[in-house]
Design goal:
Blueprint lengths: L8 H24 L4 H27 E8 L4 E8 L2 E8 L3 E12 L5 E12 L6 E6 L2 H15 L3 E3 L10
Parallel strand pairs: 4-7
Antiparallel strand pairs: 1-2, 2-3, 4-5, 5-6
């Protein structure tokens, strides 16, 4: 994910930190000031819940990572999604996959004018096998070069599907 896409997490992080600051003020007043815990506990719990509900998604958006590890010796593909200290991994056999594909992802505006084109390289199998996306490129020749290098290393063919229509069941 590009760095500017992580800017979406800033309002969530700011909102979560604001509610945590209010929680700290409530605790400080109750412990050292004129506040009464019996009157303030409901507001404290609500602010703490809001801080978690708003702040945790911001933390996830800010620390989102996606890795693909290839183990040619064990013939495995490990897809890792990491959110800060939390890590989810899924293990797939390399024998499930038959080829590397190069596809285009075209974004258009309301009038149908093309706003951006990205070329995605993915490891694909037959029908029913969910593909694994490796990388997205802005230039077609970069995507083709990367796919050819990876295909040579994995001994799989690289197929270029740029400009073709997707399948009906895709």
């Amino acid at each position: 994910m590009p760095w500017y896409m992580r800017l979406v997490s800033l309002p969530f992080l700011a909102g979560g930190l604001l509610f945590l600051a209010v929680c700290w003020q409530i605790l400080r007043q109750d412990l050292f000031g004129r506040g009464y815990w019996s009157e303030d506990w409901v507001g404290f719990v609500m602010c703490l819940v809001f801080a978690l509900v708003i702040g945790v998604p911001g933390l996830v958006l800010a620390t989102l990572r996606y890795f693909v590890e290839l183990d040619r010796i064990l013939q495995q593909v490990i897809v890792i999604r990491k959110f800060g200290p939390v890590k989810f991994s899924s293990l797939r056999k390399l024998t499930e996959f038959k080829f590397l594909s190069i596809t285009d992802d075209t974004n258009t505006d309301k009038d149908g004018c093309i706003t951006s084109i990205f070329y995605e390289v993915a490891l694909c199998g037959g029908r029913g096998v969910r593909p694994i996306m490796f990388k997205s490129f802005k230039k077609r020749d970069e995507a083709t070069g990367f796919a050819n290098e990876l295909a040579a290393a994995l001994k799989l063919p690289a197929k270029d599907y740029v400009g073709t229509e997707p399948d009906e069941d895709a």
